[in-house]
Design goal:
Elements lengths: L2 E5 L2 E4 L4 E8 L7 E7 L6 E6 L6 E3 L7 E6 L4 E6 L8 E8 L11 E2 L3 E6 L1
Parallel strand pairs: 2-11
Antiparallel strand pairs: 1-3, 3-8, 4-5, 4-9, 5-6, 7-8, 9-10, 9-11
């Protein structure tokens, strides 16, 4: 498994931007497909975006398509989530996760970070 640590969360006004980063330990990072999920209070964890091990394929939830961009740098063992045009409903704890398969379901991911809080004020 790979160990994951997220950073970059914070408080931002609606319409603003944030860039989340996830640092992975281990030499096998480039073999993993990576995903971002989020969980708001009282809600289930939901898929946000995913990227294949090569970076050649990306998937997005409809709610963030056109506003969020996922990317990865295998040389630096990092995956990022650029979030633009943020809305109050984007407020959640954001988690990065690793999987051997490219999926949009949380059960497919077996390594998770501790999460980073994103709060969007109206």
């Amino acid at each position: 498994q790979v160990q994951l640590v997220e950073s970059g969360g914070g408080l931002v006004q609606a319409g603003g931007s944030l860039r989340l980063s996830c640092a992975a330990s281990g030499r096998t990072f480039s073999r993993y497909n990576m995903g971002w999920f989020r969980q708001a209070p009282g809600k289930e964890r939901e898929f946000v975006a995913a990227i294949s091990w090569s970076g050649g394929t990306t998937l997005y939830a409809d709610s963030v398509k056109g506003r969020f961009t996922i990317s990865r740098d295998n040389a630096k063992n990092t995956v990022a989530l650029q979030m633009n045009s943020l809305k109050p409903e984007d407020t959640a704890v954001y988690y990065c996760a690793a999987s051997s398969v490219l999926r949009t379901t949380a059960v497919a991911y077996n390594s998770w970070g501790q999460g980073t809080q994103v709060t969007v004020s109206s």
